[in-house]
């Protein structure tokens, strides 16, 4: 009788095991693993799988990638596919005049750095460099429309989203949709606390940062 029960249980389990083994997901693209996670693409959406091939971050359309990315460029224009660096992966959101602003999610898929940057690097050196946008309310015009100025500052930001070093203000950045181009970064981190930046005469200088936060 015991043998019959065991056989019956095995027969009942067999179809489910067969189904589970046959549920292979096909992806359009699989990126290399970084920090234990790999981005996988279906259409224009990406998710993340772990090293057991389990989907741990569901598919979404706000992750930053560019099939024709120039990986020699610093910032968003050089990102070929989504990946985590220091526990952060870049996202984008259309905001002012449908211009993309950039922020970051953590490995649970939660937004931890709000999309407030016109361009930003990944967290290659524990910190990142980005062009932060701050709104300055100037009042209302004669037809009661709010007048807002945008102030752009190139900054060093940490993985908590805290601006820990303002590098310099940026000018001549247009936010009109038809004329907009992603502004290039004028600075680069070449170590956890070593910064190089471009001067007004197109020379490069170095700066040791006190960023022990």
UniProtKB/TrEMBL annotation:
- Leader peptide range in chain numbering: 1-22
Asked whether the UniProt record includes Cytoplasm among its keywords, one would answer no
- Entry annotated with the keyword Endoplasmic reticulum: no
Fetch the InterPro entries from UniProt: WG_beta_rep
Q: Report what the protein is called.
A: WG repeat-containing protein
Please give the Pfam families that the UniProt record associates with this protein: WG_beta_rep
What are the alphabetically sorted keywords of the record?
Signal
């Amino acid at each position: 009788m015991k043998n019959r029960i065991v056989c019956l249980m095995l027969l009942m389990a067999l179809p489910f095991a067969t189904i589970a083994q046959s549920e292979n997901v096909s992806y359009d693209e699989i990126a290399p693993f970084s920090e234990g996670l790999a981005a996988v693409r279906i259409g224009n959406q990406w998710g993340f799988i772990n090293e057991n091939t389990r989907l741990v971050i569901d598919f979404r359309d706000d992750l930053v990638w560019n099939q024709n990315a120039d990986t020699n460029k610093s910032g968003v224009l050089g990102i070929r596919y989504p990946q985590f660096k220091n526990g952060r992966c870049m996202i984008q959101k259309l905001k002012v005049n449908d211009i993309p602003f950039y922020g970051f999610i953590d490995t649970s898929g939660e937004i931890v750095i709000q999309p407030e940057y016109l361009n930003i690097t990944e967290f290659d050196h524990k910190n990142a460099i980005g062009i932060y946008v701050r709104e300055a309310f100037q009042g209302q015009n004669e037809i009661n429309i709010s007048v807002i100025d945008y102030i752009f500052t190139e900054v060093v930001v940490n993985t908590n989203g805290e601006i820990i070093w303002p590098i310099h203000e940026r000018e001549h950045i247009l936010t009109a949709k038809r004329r907009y181009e992603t502004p290039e970064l004028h600075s680069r981190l070449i170590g956890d606390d070593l910064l190089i930046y471009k001067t007004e005469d197109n020379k490069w200088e170095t700066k040791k940062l006190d960023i022990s936060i």
